[in-house]
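Justification of resources, computational component.

The compute hours requested in this renewal are based largely on the per-chain cost of generating structure records like the one below. Each record pairs the submitted sequence with a full structure-token output. That output is archived, and it is also reused by downstream analysis tasks.
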Amino acid sequence: MDYSIHDAKEAGFYKVVFIIRKDIFEEFEEIIGNRIKEQIDVEYVFQEIDDLPEGFEVPEGRTKPWGTGQAVLAAKDLITTPFIVINADDYYGKEGFKAVHNYLVEGGKSCMAGFVLKNTLSDNGGVTRGICRMDADHNLTEVDETKNIVKTVDGAEADGVKLDVDSLVSMNMWGLTPDFLQTLEKGFAEFFEKEVPANPLKAEYLIPIYIGELLKKDQMSVKVLRTNDTWYGMTYHEDVAAVKESFRQMLAEGVYKEELFSDL
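The structure output for this chain reads:
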């Protein structure tokens, strides 16, 4: 998270909104927020299970909130400019932040950073990736959710089917505008009407799924911006050592300073 905030600030973003649970606020602010606010403007919003569209109630037995779509909606009153959405527990590299920032400030609407598949795989097992289908102008047409992608000697495959390791994949780095939040809010009500009754305890309102639905209806256009940076996540416990070593190497090569924000 610290590295992502550094890279976002370096790219030109000037504020971070942490979307968290209310019950961890004090601990989060003490451990993370108070340190980060010395580097960039910080605000907090809370994703709460009962923050629902008008006329709907939490189903009996439901204990978890409603996914990334609801999380972003929790911040709607604080978002007045184009913005970027990321997962806090992933490392994206510098290039994606710069590409999304530049696209948005130049007047672009919706976009996403497209990571090269081979730069997102784990050495320790299969992963799920959303492989991007695009038109000739790099507008997203479909995200093909592909499960159990594993490294092979000469590339990657999923359930025995060879994949193009140079394909672009979505890692949940989206560039969006305040107008999109109105669409997202409307979609949340539709989600409660159509999806929740069939799966009240586990249904989730997810940004990639909803954007995919809008694409199918030609109600949205999303530009895919290629980034060649390596994405790091920790799908498996065994990934931890490799990720730590990668950060040690980036520090040794001067990609980042030991005092992380000292170069900004």
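Residues 54 and 105 are 34 Å apart (CA to CA). DSSP finds seven helices and ten strands in the chain.
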